[in-house]
């Protein structure tokens, strides 16, 4: 891991440490806030919990994310949503947001006679700008998620080391130690899981101030993620009581502990882990469903196929995963000590507003997945203005600003709201939700023949989000069609859409068995917009990104490290 990222991850957030202390005596024991060090500043429970909070929310999710937007939940997730075709880019080329989501070609009416071709294919752009010089000019899309997740991992490694030191010195008790350890292992699992799901290879570092030049496969990164989740779950199975609740509540920013974001019980936290372990399996295995075919196949994929055994494991995990009413990890904005801003810190709020003014726009392909009577559609989106640009960026749709109805989960007369710029109103789902868990369980059932069971879970999600409509299916292909639509709709702007389209085979080139069919594409016409309701799209997106060039230049791979550049693209 390169030194620049490690140093950034170990910055102590002095404001967070001071505000975590409730007594002047505690504040005087913090050390010099202008020159923080671990031993001087993280020497008691107050300092340890402040370091845990700052290392997670600020070093992990904010620092270094100020190029476009201001948190991990904006720019890195924006790439996922762009490549998942839930959003489309604007006029500018900041951070390659107008290139990462542009397909190789589109046939407007499904024939070569109306074929539009991209002169700058995504793979070429990635390989051209994957270097330190491009990063310095905000042209390397590959760096941001990598940087954030390794900053988070480094901070958690340091947290584990310092917690053990305080426990050995009898400064904190066993429950306090275990709660902090569960926190660190959980977020390490989150970091490794995101690296393994996005990049062709990664590095496993489990020591404070550790380094490694041994790059391992994305599958190995997912295995490392699962191992960290298992460590956290094992600890949580044996911890409870006031010290647990107090420690956890003090590691989560106060303003986030509303709605679904209240401090989790140890049982709820273990459910979150089950959901994220199911995510690791689902998002990293190929489950082709192209053009409505349950027998579709993809060549040249970097993923192994999903098996019935994998789906059985997913069913077990989701049965023990997040349920309606369970608390999860969420984020909120606040006037001070924000780790993301009200307008530029998360994809939902970033897309919210009139399409001619927002940095990114609502894609026509997202809208086509809604039932026209779905209250989530009618209460969230309007076609009062149109944004016209290139053939894949033109859209008629804008996302309306929602007003919070008070419970933080369902807005706009009972329907889920996708975005708002009202301070503190947007509930950012950071790491797993009931909807994601239920829809993974639904897909596991449908894929293994339980169509009725899968459809029941899909309709439960629709009811939970206030859709006002239900769906039905009597065969596997129809059920999977409903599943793909509901995942795109219910989980929009949560950073998952690209991985879904990838595993269903849609992001692969048509020549490899991929592509998206019967898609709505709108283009500028001589007088009015021209709407093509049956277009074919060949995205040909790199399925797992190369390791960022910054890492390779600063941390040359050890001999035998092969997991650097995706050989399938």
Explain this structure to me?
The structure is a single chain. This protein starts with a helix and ends in a 15-residue tail after the last helix. Strand 13 and strand 14 form a beta hairpin. The N terminus is likely disordered. The radius of gyration is 23 Å and the shape is globular. It has 22 helices and 14 strands. The longest helix is centred in the N-terminal third of the chain and has 26 residues. Strands 3-2-14-13 form a four-stranded antiparallel sheet, with no helix packed on it. A two-stranded antiparallel ribbon has the order 1-9. Strands 4-5 form a two-stranded antiparallel sheet. It has 569 residues and is an alpha+beta fold. The protein has a domain of 199 residues: Alpha Horseshoe (Serine Threonine Protein Phosphatase 5, Tetratricopeptide repeat).
Task: Please give the structural blueprint.
Layout: H1 3-9, H2 14-19, H3 24-28, H4 38-41, H5 45-60, H6 75-83, E1 87-88, E2 105-107, E3 115-117, H7 122-129, H8 132-136, H9 143-168, H10 174-198, E4 201-203, E5 215-217, H11 218-236, H12 242-251, H13 266-283, E6 285-286, E7 304-305, H14 308-319, E8 330-331, H15 347-351, E9 361-362, H16 364-367, H17 375-380, E10 381-382, E11 398-399, E12 428-429, H18 434-447, H19 451-464, H20 476-490, H21 497-503, E13 516-523, E14 530-538, H22 549-554
Helix pairs in contact: 1-9, 5-9, 5-10, 6-21, 9-10, 10-11, 10-12, 10-13, 11-13, 13-14, 14-18, 18-19, 18-20, 19-20
């Amino acid at each position: 891991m390169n030194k620049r990222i490690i140093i950034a991850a170990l910055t102590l957030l002095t404001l967070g440490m001071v505000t975590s202390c409730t007594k002047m005596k505690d504040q005087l024991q913090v050390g010099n806030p202008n020159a923080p060090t671990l031993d001087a500043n993280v020497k008691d429970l107050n300092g340890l919990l402040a370091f845990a909070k700052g290392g997670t929310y600020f070093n992990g999710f904010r620092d270094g994310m100020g190029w476009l937007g201001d948190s991990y939940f904006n720019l890195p997730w924006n790439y996922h949503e762009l490549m998942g075709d839930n959003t489309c880019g604007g006029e500018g080329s900041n951070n390659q947001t107008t290139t990462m989501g542009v397909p190789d070609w589109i046939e407007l009416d499904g024939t070569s006679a109306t074929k539009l071709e991209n002169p700058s294919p995504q793979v070429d752009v990635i390989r051209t700008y994957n270097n330190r010089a491009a990063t310095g000019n905000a042209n390397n899309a590959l760096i941001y998620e990598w940087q954030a997740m390794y900053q988070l991992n480094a901070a958690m490694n340091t947290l584990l080391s310092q917690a053990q030191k305080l426990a050995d010195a009898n400064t904190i008790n066993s429950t306090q130690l275990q709660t902090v350890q569960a926190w660190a292992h959980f977020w390490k699992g989150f970091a490794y899981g995101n690296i393994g799901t996005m990049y062709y290879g990664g590095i496993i570092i489990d020591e404070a101030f550790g380094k490694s030049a041994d790059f391992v496969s994305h599958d190995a990164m997912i295995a490392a993620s699962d191992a960290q989740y298992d460590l956290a779950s094992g600890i949580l199975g044996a911890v409870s009581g006031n010290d647990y609740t107090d420690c956890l509540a003090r590691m989560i920013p106060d303003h986030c502990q509303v709605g679904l974001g209240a401090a989790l019980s140890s049982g709820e936290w273990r459910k979150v882990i089950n959901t994220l372990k199911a995510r690791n399996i689902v998002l990293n295995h190929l489950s082709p469903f192209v053009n409505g075919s349950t027998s579709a196949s993809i060549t040249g994929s970097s993923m192994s196929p999903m098996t019935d055994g994998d789906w059985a494991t997913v069913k077990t995990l989701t049965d023990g995963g997040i349920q309606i009413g369970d608390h999860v990890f969420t984020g909120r904005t606040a006037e001070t000590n924000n780790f993301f801003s009200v307008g530029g810190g998360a994809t939902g709020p970033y897309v919210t507003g009139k399409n001619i003014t927002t940095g990114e726009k609502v894609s026509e392909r997202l809208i086509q997945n809604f039932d026209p009577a779905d209250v989530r559609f009618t209460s969230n989106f309007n076609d009062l203005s149109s944004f016209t640009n290139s053939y894949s960026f033109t859209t008629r749709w804008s996302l309306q600003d929602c007003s919070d109805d008070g419970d933080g989960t369902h807005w706009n007369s009972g329907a889920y709201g996708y975005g708002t710029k009202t301070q503190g109103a947007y509930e950012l789902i950071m790491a797993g939700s009931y909807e994601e868990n239920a829809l993974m369980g639904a897909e596991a059932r449908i894929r293994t023949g339980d169509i009725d069971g899968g459809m029941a879970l899909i309709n439960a999600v629709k009811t939970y989000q206030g859709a006002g409509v239900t769906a039905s299916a009597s065969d596997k292909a129809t059920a999977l069609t409903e599943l793909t639509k509901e995942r795109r709709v219910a989980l929009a702007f949560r950073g998952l859409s690209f991985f879904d389209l990838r595993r269903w085979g849609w992001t692969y080139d048509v020549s490899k068995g991929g592509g998206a069919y019967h898609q709505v594409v709108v283009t500028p016409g001589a007088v009015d917009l021209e709407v093509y309701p049956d277009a074919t799209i060949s995205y040909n997106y790199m399925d797992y990104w190369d390791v960022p060039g910054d890492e390779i230049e600063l941390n040359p791979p050890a001999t035998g490290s092969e997991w650097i550049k995706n050989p399938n693209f």
